[in-house]
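stuck on this chain:
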Amino acid sequence: MYNPKSMKAEEFISHDEVLDTLKYADENKDNFELIDALIEKAAERKGLSHREASVLLACEDEVRIQKIYSLAEQIKKDFYGNRIVMFAPLYLSNYCVNGCTYCPYHAKNKHIARKKLTQEDIVREVTALQDMGHKRLAIEAGEHPTMNPIEYILESINTIYSIKHKNGAIRRVNVNIAATTVENYRKLKDAGIGTYILFQETYHKESYEKLHPTGPKHDYAYHTEAMDRAMEGGIDDVGLGVLFGLELYRYEFAALLMHAEHLEAVHNVGPHTISVPRIKHADDIDPTAFDNSISDEIFAKLCALIRISVPYTGMIISTRESKEVREKVIRLGVSQISGASRTSVGGYDAPEEEDDCSEQFDVSDKRTLDQVVKWLMELGYIPSFCTACYREGRTGDRFMTLLKNGQIQNCCHPNALMTLKEYLMDYASEETREIGEKLIIAELENIPKENVRKICEENLRKIGEGIRDFRF
């Protein structure tokens, strides 16, 4: 029986409820009176249920799809303005005991180069990331009880935070590691992590178990219930995501929203972020072997509908996607992107031409961080390296309250400008710096409170003189 308040995976992600939802969506995909009413409801900025949103996903009427796109663009502006948060993944280890059929790290892959960063390696990797200008990382590691125990992850986080190179510093470490225990989540919380991210891969239990034939990840319930354990362990910023292409996208979309509804119902805090990866080519992995791949058009529609259905969530897209796809979905709802990513262990300190076949997936957007920052500004966005909310304790329900009532803009907009100024002074090319300085001057006028604007202007002046790390 479907119950969003249940703590059992098969009850808050009910297979029968998903099937009933898809049936309801098919029956109403041409019910334009209902569809128009749902678009009007979404315009209230309070979101849609999984069943309501699934009707809009099934709708194929081009006029109404364009209305959805326009609404998604407006809601994105209302909640997140024109800011795009920048981050980079850092792969610590690709040793893994799981048998995931879509990932080259699977235990049976004998020709991938297995690597694990030492703490000295991490210093070199993080220094290279700091020299690009990054302030926010998402650490990744395969699941291996002896090669990648929680003690290794905790030591690595401590090392990352300790590294100060020139004006560089990593100010927020998000963590994407395997489902674990409440005790270990408490340890991660105490280590000062930002968001705990765990992709479900697929919510379809039968498919999940086939795709994860061996290893601890085979346990569907333990994996699906991980966010509840993380919340119990004190981590109040969690990030969801599915790997689109493994299962039918409409099933995944409905279940993903059900998971968000469950977190709201039980913890009164929905997902801090939702990621939207698609399966890509990698060593030992051919994406055409999975017959549920989705087109760029469907992908854009999914992004827009996630934005209007869960308006408060941050949406993340990685360098799996091309420049063209990223440009389209940033407009429709994405608020965080990676830049200059390496998906191999030790990839930042190593020369780019050294290909050791240790990448988790092929990168489509291979531009430098400076090129990505310049591109965003030319599109009218503010590349933000801000980590202030996490460092000021604005997490969980405190962050969500400020976001939903619009007050977060009083912090996020000036913080974005100040961190962009840091990037321009310390890392940008001359051309990027020139574009950025003009953007900052123009965007200062969009800070509504005069006292905040004056403080921001003074801090920008001090940044120009070499002082760093101001935040509201």
